[in-house]
Write a structure and sequence with these properties.
This protein is an alpha/beta fold. It contains 16 helices and eleven strands. The chain has helices at about 5-110, 120-250, 265-285, 305-310, 315-320, 365-375, 400-415, 440-460, 475-480, 490-495, 535-545, 550-560, 595-605, 615-620, 625-635, 645-655; strands at about 285-290, 295-300, 330-335, 335-345, 390, 420, 470-475, 505-510, 530-535, 565-570, 575-580. The protein has a seven-stranded mixed sheet. Strand 6, helix 8 (about 440-460) and strand 7 form a beta-alpha-beta unit. The radius of gyration is 58 Å and the shape is elongated.
Length: about 650
C-alpha cells in the first residue's frame, strides 16, 4: 500500500480516537446537568409548598382575627348588659330602701294613730299588703336578674376559655409553621450551594473539554496541513514530470502529430510556418498557427510555454526572418498565446501624436470612425452604421463631453436625429446636461429602457412608419440597475437588434466592470463599444482579461502629460489607449456620405449572426469538462473568424464563473 494511503488511515484512526475521548466528557457533563435539573425541580416543588403553607397560615390568621373580633363584641355586649343590670339592681335597692323608710314612717304613724280609727287600720293593712306584694315582686325580679347575670358570666367564661384555647392552638400552629419555613429556607440555601458547586464543576468540565477539543483539532489540523503540503509537493513534482514527458512525447511523435500550420498564402504566414518549425526543434514544444497580422505572428503552444523560452531563440528567429539592422523582434505572451511582432522604427515615425508628443498609434479622427463604423480606422468598403456605446468614468472625467461629440457626429449624418435623455439627477438639480431630460425620476429612467426595447419591437413588426432615427441616452446606469435583473434582457435586445431599426442606446456609469449590471457577463458588451475614461481605464486593464496588460504602461505614461485619457474597447480589433476628444471637437461635423445612402444601408442590412454559446457552455460544464476542452468543443460546434476565438474563450470563462 502506498505511503500516502497509510498516512491517511493512521490520521483517520487518530481522529476517531480523539473523537471517542472527547465524546466521554460530554456524557459526564450530561449526567451533571441532569442532576442539576433534578435539584432545581425539587427546589421548585419545596418553594411551591412553602408558598402554599404561607397562604394557608395567612387564611387561618385571618379566621382567628375574625373570631377574636366577634368574641370581643360579645364580651362588650355582656359587660354592657351586666352594667345595666347592676344599675337596675341599685335603683331597685334604692327604691326598696325608700319604700321601707316610707313603711317605717307609716308604721310609726300607724302605731301613733292606732288608736284613731278602725278605718285607718284597714287602710294601713291594705297598704301594707300592697307593699309586701310589691316587695315580693321586686325580690323575684332581683333573683331572676341575678340568675341571668350568673348565666351571662358563665357564658362569658366559656367564651374566654374557648378563645384562650384557640389562641394557644394558633400559637402552636404558628410555631410549627415558622419551624417549617426555617427548615425550607435552610434546604433552599443548601440546594443553592449545591447548585453553585455543580455549575462551577460544569464550567470546569466545559473548559477542560474545550481545551482538549482545541488541542485535538489543532493536532489533527497540523497533521492534515503537513499531509496536504506533502501531497501538493508530490502533485507539483508529478505535474512537472508529466509536462516534461508530454513535451518529449510531442517531440518524439512530431512526425505523426503535426502542428496546425498557416495556409501560407502571404509572406507573414510563410514566415510563421518557418518559426513553428524552428521553435519545435529548439524548444521541444509543439506550436500551432493562430493568426497573423500586418507585422505580427501569433502562435498557440500545445502546452503552456513561457515567452522567455521563445526569447532564448530570438537570434535564430531573426536570422530566419532576415531582419535588417533597424528591425527587431518583440515577443509577448497573452492568455496562453505567443505573439511575435516585427518592430520597424522607420515605419512609426509618421504616426499621429498628441499635443504633448506621445505616440498614440491611432488616427486623429478615430472617434468619428468609431461612432459611425465601429472601427478606429476607416476601412475601404465599410458602411457607416452608428454604434451603441457604454461609457464609464468617474465624476468630471469627460463623459458629457464625449456624449456631446458623439451627438454632433450623428447629427452630421442624420440631421433628423431624435435625442432622448434619461437623467435621474435632473430632479435633484445635480444634472450637468445641456439637453432637456425626457425621463427624470428613477422609475421613469428604468422605464425608458423598456420603452426603447418596445420601440425596437414595433419597428421590427412594421408598426412605426416614421422610423425617425432615435438615440436614447441613460445616465447613472449603475445606480438604476443595482439589484435588479428585470432590465438585462431589454438592454441586450436593444444592443443586438436596435441598430438595424434605427435605434441606438448609450449608457453612462462609473463602474468599468459587468458586476453592477445584474444579469450581464462581460461577453454581453461585445455588441457595443466600451469607452473607459481616466481612472476607470486603469481599473478595466487590471480586471478584464480581454484587455492586454501592457496597456497599463502606456496609461501611466500618458497620465504625466494628458488630463483626459480614454481606453477604447472596440467591437472588433484590439483595445487601445488615446487622449480623450476635446469638447465640441465635432460641432461642425459633416459626413461625406449622403443621408439617403446611410438610411438605405441601415434599413436593408441584415443583422449579423450573433454567436451566443452560453447554453452549450453550461451543458458542457455540467459534464465536468475543463475550460480548454469546452472551448475546443464549442469552436467545433460553432466555428467563426479567427479573431473571435478570444471572445469565445471569454464566454466560456464568464459562464463557468457565474
Amino acid at each position: 500500500m502506498p505511503a500516502v494511503e497509510l498516512m491517511d488511515i493512521n490520521l483517520l484512526r487518530k481522529a476517531c480516537q480523539a473523537r471517542r475521548e472527547l465524546s466521554k466528557a460530554p456524557s459526564e457533563l450530561d449526567l451533571i446537568q441532569a442532576e442539576l435539573v433534578q435539584v432545581r425541580h425539587e427546589l421548585t416543588v419545596k418553594q411551591r409548598e412553602l408558598i402554599n403553607t404561607r397562604n394557608s397560615l395567612g387564611e387561618k390568621v385571618t379566621g382567628f382575627d375574625r373570631v377574636e373580633e366577634v368574641l370581643r363584641k360579645q364580651v362588650e355586649e355582656l359587660e354592657t348588659k351586666q352594667t345595666q343590670t347592676q344599675q337596675f339592681l341599685e335603683k331597685t335597692k334604692q327604691a326598696l330602701e325608700q319604700t321601707q323608710q316610707v313603711l317605717t314612717e307609716k308604721q310609726r304613724e300607724i302605731s301613733e294613730n292606732r288608736s284613731s280609727t278602725e278605718a285607718s287600720n284597714q287602710s294601713f293593712n291594705q297598704v301594707e299588703l300592697a307593699l309586701k306584694s310589691r316587695v315580693k315582686e321586686l325580690e323575684t325580679e332581683l333573683s331572676q336578674t341575678h340568675r341571668q347575670l350568673d348565666r351571662t358570666q358563665l357564658e362569658l367564661k366559656e367564651i374566654r376559655n374557648s378563645f384562650e384555647t384557640e389562641v394557644s392552638r394558633f400559637n402552636q400552629v404558628e410555631l410549627a409553621l415558622k419551624k417549617q419555613v426555617e427548615e425550607l429556607e435552610t434546604a433552599v440555601e443548601t440546594q443553592s450551594s449545591l447548585l453553585d458547586v455543580a455549575e462551577s464543576k460544569i464550567r470546569e468540565m466545559q473548559g477542560f473539554v474545550d481545551r482538549e477539543l482545541d488541542m485535538s483539532i489543532g493536532s489533527i489540523k497540523a497533521q492534515y496541513e503537513t499531509q496536504v503540503e506533502f501531497l501538493e509537493s508530490q502533485i507539483q513534482a508529478l505535474t512537472r514530470d508529466n509536462q516534461e514527458k508530454q513535451a518529449m512525447y510531442d517531440v518524439l511523435l512530431g512526425h505523426t502529430i503535426q502542428p496546425r500550420r498557416f495556409p501560407g498564402i502571404n509572406p507573414m504566414e510563410i514566415l510563421g510556418n518557418k518559426f513553428i518549425d524552428a521553435l519545435m526543434m529548439e524548444t521541444k514544444a509543439v506550436f500551432d498557427g493562430h493568426e497573423t497580422g500586418a507585422n505580427s505572428i501569433t502562435l498557440s503552444p500545445r502546452l503552456p510555454v513561457s515567452p522567455q523560452l521563445v526569447k532564448k531563440n530570438l537570434e535564430l528567429l531573426k536570422m530566419i526572418a532576415r531582419l535588417s539592422v533597424e528591425q527587431s523582434l518583440k515577443v509577448v505572451g497573452n492568455k496562453g498565446l505567443i505573439e511575435i511582432e516585427i518592430v520597424d522604427p522607420s515605419k512609426t515615425k509618421d504616426k499621429p501624436k498628441t499635443e504633448s508628443g506621445i505616440d498614440l498609434g491611432v488616427p486623429a479622427d478615430w472617434f468619428s470612425n468609431l461612432i459611425l463604423t465601429g472601427e478606429s480606422v476607416l476601412m475601404a468598403g465599410v458602411k457607416q452604421r452608428p454604434q451603441h456605446l457604454k461609457i464609464c468614468g468617474e465624476s468630471e472625467s469627460g463623459k458629457s463631453a464625449t456624449v456631446s461629440n458623439g451627438i454632433d457626429i450623428l447629427k452630421g449624418v442624420m440631421p433628423n436625429l431624435r435625442v432622448m435623455l434619461a437623467d435621474p439627477l435632473s430632479e435633484t438639480g445635480e444634472s450637468s446636461w445641456n439637453i432637456p431630460a425626457t425621463w427624470k425620476t428613477d422609475d421613469q429612467c428604468r422605464n425608458a429602457i423598456k420603452w426603447t426595447a418596445q420601440l425596437v419591437e414595433h419597428r421590427k413588426a412594421g408598426k412605426d412608419q416614421e422610423r425617425i432615427p432615435t438615440l436614447v441616452i441613460v445616465d447613472e446606469i449603475d445606480t438604476l440597475l443595482e439589484g435588479s435583473k428585470d432590465y438585462a434582457g431589454a438592454i441586450k435586445k436593444i444592443w443586438k437588434q436596435g441598430r438595424h431599426q434605427g435605434v441606438w442606446l448609450w449608457v453612462l456609469g462609473q463602474s468599468p466592470n459587468a458586476t453592477p449590471f445584474p444579469g450581464f457577463n462581460l461577453s454581453d458588451f461585445n455588441n457595443c463599444i466600451c469607452l473607459y475614461l481616466n481612472q476607470t481605464a486603469s481599473y478595466a486593464i487590471e480586471q478584464q482579461k480581454s484587455i492586454p496588460s501592457n496597456l497599463m504602461v502606456k496609461y501611466h505614461d500618458m497620465t504625466e502629460t494628458e488630463r483626459y485619457i480614454t481606453l477604447v474597447k472596440p467591437k472588433r480589433g484590439k483595445p487601445f489607449i488615446t487622449a480623450s476628444v476635446k469638447p465640441d471637437s465635432f460641432k461642425e461635423f459633416t459626413s461625406t456620405i449622403p443621408v439617403e445612402e446611410i438610411s438605405r444601408a441601415t434599413e436593408s442590412a441584415e443583422p449579423p449572426a450573433e454567436i451566443d454559446c452560453s447554453q452549450e457552455i453550461s451543458d458542457l460544464n455540467k459534464e465536468g469538462l475543463t475550460a480548454s476542452q469546452i472551448v475546443e468543443k464549442i469552436w467545433k460546434l460553432k466555428p467563426s473568424r479567427s479573431q473571435e476565438y478570444l471572445d469565445r474563450v471569454e464566454q466560456v470563462r464568464d459562464v463557468i464563473a457565474s
